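seq:
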Amino acid sequence: MTAFKVEEIAVFTLENILYTFTDPLTGYAAVMACLFAIMDERGWRRLKKLPILLPAPLTATLLIMVLYEAIPGAFAARYCISSCFNLLACTLWTRWAWRIGFWPAFAAVCMAGMFQVAASTLSRMLFRTLPLDAVPQIVVTEVIFWVVTLTIVTLLYRLRFGAWFRLLIENSPDQHRMALLLFALESSMEVLLLIQKGIQQEYFILYYLLVITTAALIAGLVIYVAQRLDAARKLETQRDIIAQQQLYERDLEAIRREVRLFRHDYKNLLAGLSEQADAGKLGELRATLAELDAGFDRRVGEKIQASTQLGNVRVPQVRSLLLAKLAAMGEQSIDCRLEVLYPLEQVGMDMWDFTRCLGILLDNASEAALETERPWVEIVLLAQGKGVSLRVSNPYAGTVDPDKIWAEGFSTKGEGRGLGLASYQRILSGYATAASSTSWAGGVFIQELTIGGRT
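struct:
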């Protein structure tokens, strides 16, 4: 993150100290203006949190003075250190103000820094081209800078850039990579701003146009990628709807078969009703009817439950995976029982990591269940605050060696397999709030995963 004025201070007089302080103060204010547009902020509530950030420009000024005394001849090094401090301070404030993760906040501040650099560059270009010699330079630079900055902010709101940016960064499977990419782009913009001192005057216009064009291309790239992601999400939603409809249709067909069977059994019972009544067997008839009713309710209830439990899964990625796995198990004639007691809206970890873990457990469970005479898989998802508890059970006909199942490459299927559980363990090792357990008793293999909410 840079400020508008990129100049060397020779002696720290009182005037220069004030000048040095207005530099980061202006930079912070401009970044905040761009940040509000990037985060698509429409209200005034977060403006009340800005005073918490006020000590940062003062600290940045003191840091510049200390660095000048420590390394007086290295302007570029001092500039990089102070810029990194400003970037970190804004990131921490953004994370606190919007209550988001570190990487989304870091990405947003990097994006705001790029627009601030573009505003600084465009302001310098206008300052060099406009005939404003009669007005004090410091007034001209500040006025032009803020006119340009507010114009960029207004344009970002008009283009709905913030909505696209948040869609991209919040739904990216690799938020840290996206943030680091934006940091690299922002750093390149900073470098372009630093090298302007070596640009000859006749090339200034081309240089300024290069910087502004680069910022515009980056913004356009963000919008393009976000639109592609949005289109992919809509396509995935349509596939989910189709898969869910297919699941409902399959379950409804099973319910119809149960009803036809129930009617057939009832006809047979009614045919023998008069004979049993004459023989004084009303008690036995009532017991038979009650058993038939209970069996019918249980079988139909299981089908209805399997279809309705998906409605409690509010995380799109998890629901998509469950739909795909339920459909695959149905094709393999695996009886799958899904239980989601409460609405599941958070998983307490990166959603993509959780879906990878869930997919590994379900694949292993279905493969093991197919080796038994009556294959079945039971999935229980229990929302626990901001976290979740997962249990996957399946029958298993073989034996389990607890010391080997987590080893990479070990598998009962033969060589070249067995990478799933090792990968599962590597994913969980990155989360301090995740705890997994494995048990095997009575021919049933159980995998449990408990994830606490992230702080």
